[in-house]
Predict the structure.
Amino acid sequence: MKVTLLGTGPPINPNRFQSSALIEIGSDLLLFDVGGVLSTSCWCREST
Amino acid sequence: MSRLGPIFITHHHYDRINDLYPVILSTATLGRVDTLHICGPGGTQQIVDALLNGVYAPDIRFRIEENREVLRRTQGGHQRREAISDVAVHEIGSGVAAVGGGWRVMADYVRHGDFPDAPDFDWRCLGYRIEAQGEVITISGDTVPCPGVIGLARDADLLVQCCMWSESALTNPTVQILTESVLPTTTQAGQIAAEAGVKRLVLTHLSASINEAGALANVRQHYQGKVLLGSDLLVIE
């Protein structure tokens, strides 16, 4: 399993995205919570 | 991103669901063809319904009509916009949350707020235990030390544990009260990791006041295993 911490902040911390974690198991992508700015960071991750 | 799912929601604070609609939308516009499954505590269906049938109904309608217009003029293919609303919500409690090819996700209730004077307020928070490939990863959700998170993290290879304050913040009386039933200090995070016997601890949900040296010193009061201070886009294998 591979874990990517997409966000590690609480509701308000200007230096961190809000909490979300992605777990990859084979070709499956399990997402835990959907904190703010997630879609951007997720997109960046897949694009790099 | 079109392959994303299921999505597991721990609780309904806004910082856990802020990007739920953008993710539903993005997976669809990037080519999702299957139903997007969303698991969460009671009340998740109401939130998803409000997003898809209320708040963002005009946005969804716009994209469907826009697509129809493109198809009419070009006779060409375009994304299946109806996939945006192809979402299945599973309201779950303690037990098996979802099973996939070679993996299983277990859920249990964790302690993130007690409201004995508000019996009408049905506030439920979950943590998750992911079992696959002979490994166990636990996502604590937001919680202070409680039987739920200890059970989910029992002997886990990795615990992703929320914490909010360093021990030094306990001089604030409000923080002191909140660490009893809402969010833990870094010291309490170490306590959870030690009691559950996890092999590795990663701290997340970190306020700006937490620094690495102080956090590690706090954790070490209880837990001697491997510790990482989480950071955005950190990959752990």
About this structure: Chain B touches chain A through 51 residues (CB under 8 Å). The two ends of chain B are 20 Å apart (CA to CA). The mean pLDDT of chain B is 94.
